[in-house]
Specification:
The complex is a heterodimer of chains A (279) and B (291). Chain A has 10 helices and 10 strands. Chain A is α/β, with parallel strands linked by helices and 279 residues long. In chain A, strands 6-7-8-3-9-10 form a 6-stranded mixed β-sheet, sandwiched between helices. In chain A, strands 2-1-4-5 form a 4-stranded antiparallel β-sheet, with helices on one face. In chain A, helix 3 runs parallel beside helix 5 and helix 4 crosses helix 5. The N and C termini of chain A lie far apart (45 Å). In chain B, helix 6 links the parallel strand 7 and strand 8. In chain B, helix 3 packs across helix 4, helix 3 runs parallel beside helix 5 and helix 4 packs across helix 5. In chain B, the strands form 2 sheets. In chain B, strands 6-7-8-3-9-10 form a 6-stranded mixed β-sheet, sandwiched between helices. A 4-stranded antiparallel β-sheet of chain B has the order 2-1-4-5, covered by helices on one side. Chain B starts with a strand and ends with a helix. The chains are: A alpha/beta (279), B alpha/beta (291).
């Protein structure tokens, strides 16, 4: 099935009448099963998109549809059943005194039967490789472990769509790698729609598509590979490309022809090797 | 100011069930004017270490010298207020500490507390605003009307207004977008050079440590694990992996290139552009030999 999971139609939003538009006539659609990264500088409107999708705020103009349902004050509870969110600060999203209780919280709210609940807790903790910590206190975990438990809590309620809103921003490099690996695994093994919001271009390489926001407008929509060729434009809007892409762009200015824009070091080395053999 | 740590240990809540040794026999010395990066994982002791630098905590064992000031377990530091005036600390997410009703008052708060005259404060404010790249028109506005990046600049201006000789920066770019990160770091580097400061940067970014620091200290489990120039420290792949740190990307790539092509390529602080030129030559040269 490749139906539209999320659709924005000419959406504008501002926090009050005197302030500038945070989003200005934004339209895009995201298909089910797709992994879309939304990137942009601080204040570009990317987190506002997340809040609009699950009805934490409503658009001033335009319409938003989630799985065919128009997001309004009346439908917001139906929409939220389908959307799971993980936020930036790992310390602000725990309610349970143990990892198990915390993952159970969303299931209890939805009245899931006990045997089913136990199964889902075990499955979702296994998916984020946190099964060994089931009886631990959440506040004693590392930042990366906390965010993995938060992801398990979202997985357990089986939403169609998961949004990670700068979920790695407050983590150290090890925690960041843990989360990126977890997200990649989860996407491989579950049928779901994923939106990751970030300003780190190293984090978008596995996404199917990237929506780049700039000053409340969609700057471009493309694949990570194509995006990495647009070094100067990205820099002008406050973003930067990964090291590999920079080096590839510099090599292209020399007398080296690359057949495609590499997205990691291995791809670039392979390209150089091929170039060398065919020379 | 010269800074030296001699066999410094720090224990939280000693002689209690919660006793925890955060620093263990740390030894190093930093010459005045050096830009130092302190690197290590969460829990490695970085934050505990920097809290010593302006006397927020004193060592449980050992001795610290910062310029003429001495910090020891046994005795109270003389003139600790002078030390705190001379060592400016920019904590993580410093914008969370803004509280005054105008930006001007917030910047003036620190120096005022240290008894700097109003006249002198008024002289410093335009200078620090320029340093952090904020418009003087903002002075009468509330700091809470600003964007996150601008709020951080206000908080940094407040530290600079004390005219410190040592600047301690605890992950100053966390949460900023790439452009904001680069602007803030370039600003610190410029201040460091122009005002001949001693700068201590705590960072998770090997890229920043490589780009800005003269000297790198790596902490692991409260102990000093390695130190040296970035070029010395960051080429030691196995040693870094043992404490789960990565090499900066440019050095990683140079390593992989050498392995794949069997060609000697060295990291010597070259730019990406210069590296591309070297690779271009190597790839072509080898073809000539083969052909």
């Amino acid at each position: 099935m490749n139906s539209d999971q999320v659709e924005f139609r000419n959406v504008s939003f501002r926090y009050n009448d005197e302030q500038p538009w945070v989003l200005n006539n934004v339209s895009f659609s995201i298909k089910s099963d797709e992994w879309v990264a939304i990137i942009g500088h601080n204040g570009s409107g990317k987190s506002t998109i997340a809040k609009l999708i699950n009805g934490l705020i409503f658009p001033d103009q335009g319409e938003i549809f989630v799985n065919g349902i128009k997001v309004t004050a009346d439908t917001v509870w139906d929409v939220r059943k389908q959307v799971g969110m993980v936020f930036q600060n790992p310390d602000n999203q725990f309610v349970g005194t143990t990892v198990k209780d915390d993952v159970a919280f969303g299931l209890e709210n939805r009245g899931v039967e006990r045997s089913e609940m136990i199964k889902r807790i075990n499955d979702s903790l296994a998916a984020v490789r946190m099964s060994d910590y089931i009886m631990h206190e959440p506040h004693r975990l590392s930042g990366g472990q906390k965010q993995r438990v938060a992801i398990a809590g979202v997985l357990a309620v089986q939403p169609n769509l998961i949004i990670l809103d700068e979920a790695t921003a407050m983590l150290d490099p090890k925690g960041r790698t843990e989360i990126l690996t977890t997200v990649y695994d989860v996407k491989q093994n579950h049928q779901l729609n994923l939106i990751t919001i970030t300003h780190d271009l190293n984090e978008i390489i596995h996404a199917d598509r990237v929506i780049v926001m700039n000053n409340g407008e969609v700057w471009t929509e493309t694949s990570p590979r194509v995006l990495f060729t647009q070094e100067e434009g990205l820099r002008e809007i406050g973003l930067d490309i990964p090291f590999v892409a920079k080096l590839a762009n510099e090599l292209s200015k020399q007398s080296i022809t690359l057949t495609q824009q590499p997205i990691n070091q291995k791809e670039l080395l392979d390209e150089l090797w091929t170039f060398h053999l065919n020379k | 100011m010269d800074i030296s740590f001699k066999q410094v240990s720090y224990i939280y809540q000693p002689n209690s069930p919660f006793e925890h040794q955060a620093l263990k026999e740390i030894d190093f010395s930093i010459k005045s004017g050096t830009f130092v990066a302190i690197v290590g994982h969460t829990g490695s002791g970085k934050s505990t270490l920097i809290q010593h630098l302006n006397g927020l905590i004193r060592p449980t064992k050992g001795e610290i010298n910062i310029g003429d000031f001495t910090l020891k377990a046994s005795e109270k530091t003389a003139k600790i207020k002078d030390l705190r005036r001379q060592v400016g600390v920019v904590f993580q997410y410093p914008e969370h500490q803004l509280f005054e009703e105008t930006i001007e008052k917030d910047i003036a708060f620190g120096p005022k507390n240290f008894g700097v005259s109003d006249e002198e404060i008024n002289r410093r404010i335009p200078q620090v605003l320029e340093a952090v790249n904020l418009s003087p028109e903002l002075l009468s506005r509330s700091p809470f009307d600003l964007s996150g990046g601008q709020m951080r600049r206000v908080a940094i201006a407040g530290v600079l207004a004390m005219d410190p000789r040592v600047l301690v920066l605890d992950e100053p770019t966390a949460g900023l977008d790439p452009k904001g990160q680069q602007e803030i770091m370039d600003m610190f580097k410029e201040l460091h050079t122009r005002k001949q400061l001693t700068t201590i940067l705590v960072t998770h970014s090997m890229e920043d440590a490589l780009k800005y620091a003269d000297h790198v200290i790596i902490l692991d489990h409260g102990q000093k694990y390695m130190e040296g120039t970035p070029a010395e420290v960051f080429v030691q792949k196995e040693a870094l992996q043992r404490v789960q740190l990565d090499m900066p990307e440019i050095i990683q790539f140079i390593h992989s290139f050498e392995q794949r092509f069997g060609q000697a390529l060295r990291y010597n602080g070259q730019s990406i552009e210069a590296l591309a030129q070297e690779i271009n030559q190597l790839v072509h040269e080898e073809v000539k030999v083969d052909g």
